């Protein structure tokens, strides 16, 4: 519904959901396009949000140990939920079952509800009047908030918010998301420097 309300056609909305099976990236892409951003910039922001799935895939490839011919198809289902279910399983067989059942169920329901939402958006007319543009960010924050457990993670999230919101008025749509991604490497670099300094300043044994 958010996608259709941002100007995408029913076919474009359904194709996006079928091909880009990761909600955060979809919302980022649609949000940037709706704000008048460059399509390449919008796609780049969506890409960076989906990079985490590549790291999930590295771990799942060891647990699933799927045949080479099946891996490209399984990669489409590597998302937060399938990874969480797979990692919680005790045996390889249950890992495969959990991953497959979760991936298939979510993929079918996600695309079905995308279709229903796009059709509904066309039926209700001007979606801006309903404030549906806030649905994407709200869902993303709801998914992100429980994952911020350490001080470093909260610092990265806070810095990313400040960068994104601060640069929003001065940069083209989609670019603030790319700049906000720099918060993670900068925070990790500062944390590493603090750790090194602490180790260097620690007590030394007298000889």
UniProtKB/TrEMBL annotation:
Principal place of residence: membrane
UniProt topology in membrane: Multi-pass membrane protein
Organism: Streptomyces siamensis
TM ranges: 97-118, 130-148, 160-190
Subcellular location, record wording: Cell membrane
Protein name (record): AzlC family ABC transporter permease
Keywords, ordered alphabetically: Cell membrane, Membrane, Transmembrane, Transmembrane helix, Transport
Family listed: Belongs to the AzlC family.
């Amino acid at each position: 519904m958010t996608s259709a309300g941002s100007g995408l056609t029913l076919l474009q909305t359904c194709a996006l959901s079928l091909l880009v099976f990761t909600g955060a990236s979809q919302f980022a892409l649609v949000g940037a396009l709706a704000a008048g951003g460059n399509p390449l910039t919008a796609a780049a922001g969506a890409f960076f949000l989906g990079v985490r799935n590549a790291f999930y895939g590295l771990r799942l490839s060891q647990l699933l140990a799927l045949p080479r011919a099946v891996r490209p198809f399984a990669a489409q289902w590597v998302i937060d939920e399938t990874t969480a279910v797979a990692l919680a399983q005790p045996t390889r067989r249950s890992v495969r079952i959990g991953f497959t059942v979760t991936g298939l169920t979510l993929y079918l329901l996600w695309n079905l509800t995308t279709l229903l939402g796009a059709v509904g958006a066309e039926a209700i007319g001007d979606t801006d009047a309903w404030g549906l543009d806030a649905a994407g960010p709200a869902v993303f924050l709801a998914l992100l908030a429980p994952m911020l457990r350490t001080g470093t993670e909260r610092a990265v999230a806070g810095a990313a918010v400040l960068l994104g919101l601060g640069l929003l008025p001065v940069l083209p749509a989609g670019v603030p998301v790319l700049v906000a991604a720099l918060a993670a490497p900068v925070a990790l670099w500062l944390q590493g420097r603090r750790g090194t300094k602490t180790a260097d300043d620690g007590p030394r044994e007298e000889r």
